[in-house]
Amino acid sequence: MKNFLDRHFILETLPPRSSNAEKYIEFCREAVESGVEIIAVTDLPMGSARVSPVAPAHMLVENSIEVLMHFSRTTRNAIRIEGDLIATHMLGIKNLLILSGDDPRVGTYPFSSSIEDFSIYDVFKLVNLLNEKGEDIAGVKIYGKFSFNPGGVFSPFEKDVSQTLERMVKKIENGCRFFVSQPVFSQETMVNFLQETEIHKRTKIYVALMVFESVQQLQYFSKVPGVFVPKEYFHQRDDEHLKWYSVKRTISIVESLSKYVTGFYLTSTTKDLDVIKQIAEAVSAQCE
């Protein structure tokens, strides 16, 4: 069986707003049959209330599907972060994408609190301490062996590349083993970032890809912080043209960037299995 970091294609999914996960698990199975190697499970994306990722991630593990579970810090206080990490590992979930998370105040409950007990580096440090010493930041012994595989996120679009690099290096120093980028729509931007920083020589990089299935979807996500969509996408005259332009552009990015990166991460904007299969085949052809 392949190690996580030897796999090349990750599909992001939204956990259901339901007490029943049958349709979700079935979709994930079909996605794996279509060429997906890892299923990513998001953690309250866009501040929307839905099932915690721990339950569906555990169910996927039980179905022998490789999982990358998002783990957000700003919806948890310090003791909840530690407790949830221990519970996550207990349920067999080892691969974590550690991130600050979307502001809960922009989602289902605008009065929700954004919690800053731990910085993002504190969470990486805690995970690393559990892995290396079996203890927490307070120095308290946590019994059992831990083998988390923690990853982080980054943006190649910031004007001050040195600051981005500094944050990535600090995460690496605190145990981060791989990174997923913000969605990339221009291979030139990513190539320039990697050539300037050479960070891909120090760690594993997965490039996030975004396929739009409708003009409405494009308009919504183009307003999300950190998503920078080129004007050519807005020139497509209807949903069908936009979708296939988006797929074509995505495959072109895969072909251009595969020699620099470990793999690719397709966001949850598409659930079309034919599209997922096309991109999986492109990734497989370039990365194997």
Automatic annotation (TrEMBL):
Q: What is the lineage of its organism?
A: Bacteria, Thermotogati, Thermotogota, Thermotogae, Thermotogales
In its UniProt entry, the species of origin is given as Fervidobacterium gondwanense DSM 13020
What's in the keyword line of the UniProt record? FAD, Flavoprotein, Oxidoreductase
GO MF entries: FAD binding; methylenetetrahydrofolate reductase (NADH) activity
The UniProt entry, under PANTHER family, shows: METHYLENETETRAHYDROFOLATE REDUCTASE (PTHR45754), METHYLENETETRAHYDROFOLATE REDUCTASE (NADPH) (PTHR45754:SF3)
Its name, as the record gives it, is Methylenetetrahydrofolate reductase
GO CC list: cytosol
Q: Which Gene3D superfamilies match?
A: 3.20.20.220
Concerning its family, UniProt says:
Belongs to the methylenetetrahydrofolate reductase family.
Co-factor(s): FAD
One GO BP annotation here?
methionine biosynthetic process
Which reaction(s) are listed as its catalytic activity? (6S)-5-methyl-5,6,7,8-tetrahydrofolate + NAD(+) = (6R)-5,10-methylene-5,6,7,8-tetrahydrofolate + NADH + H(+)
